[in-house]
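A reminder from the course coordinator: this example appears on the midterm review sheet, so study it carefully.

Given structure:
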């Protein structure tokens, strides 16, 4: 059974990569990059989540700079592409709260010049990011458990 899970996980990761490639070609041309990585939650952190032992995928958008670190960018540079991408993710995949921010409905993580900030799906989809963050962004990430 564990081999079937690995096959499914790779399929989901490949589908996510294809989805990202179709939504972000203009951002790729500007130097942005999507990184899809796997993660696991600690059971004690995830005790209120639906999938306490489940692995998940993390989709991170950023602009790499020297020595593979991300360089800061503004929300205005990516919002026209990220909002439609997030809308399709909500319809196709099960997204999960960040384990640290489960009480604040923080689905979308923004690594900013002022530290990590977590916003709800509604705040991002309704373009209230700039008002809440008020600073430049290093990267944006979201966690995905499974297809719906």
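Designed residues:
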């Amino acid at each position: 059974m564990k081999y079937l899970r690995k096959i499914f996980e790779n399929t989901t990761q490949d589908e996510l990569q294809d989805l990202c490639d179709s939504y972000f070609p203009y951002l790729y041309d500007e130097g942005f990059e999507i990184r899809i990585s796997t993660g696991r939650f600690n059971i004690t952190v995830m005790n209120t989540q639906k999938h306490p032992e489940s692995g998940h995928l993390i989709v991170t958008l950023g602009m790499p700079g020297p020595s593979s670190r991300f360089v800061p960018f503004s929300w205005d540079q990516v919002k026209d592409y990220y909002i439609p991408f997030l809308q399709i993710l909500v319809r196709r995949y099960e997204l999960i709260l960040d384990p640290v921010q489960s009480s604040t409905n923080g689905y979308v993580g923004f690594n900013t010049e002022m530290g990590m900030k977590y916003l709800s799906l509604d705040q991002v989809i309704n373009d209230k990011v700039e008002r809440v963050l008020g600073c430049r962004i290093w990267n944006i990430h979201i966690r995905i458990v499974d297809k719906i």
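The chain is about 35% helix and 30% strand. The chain has one domain: 2-147.
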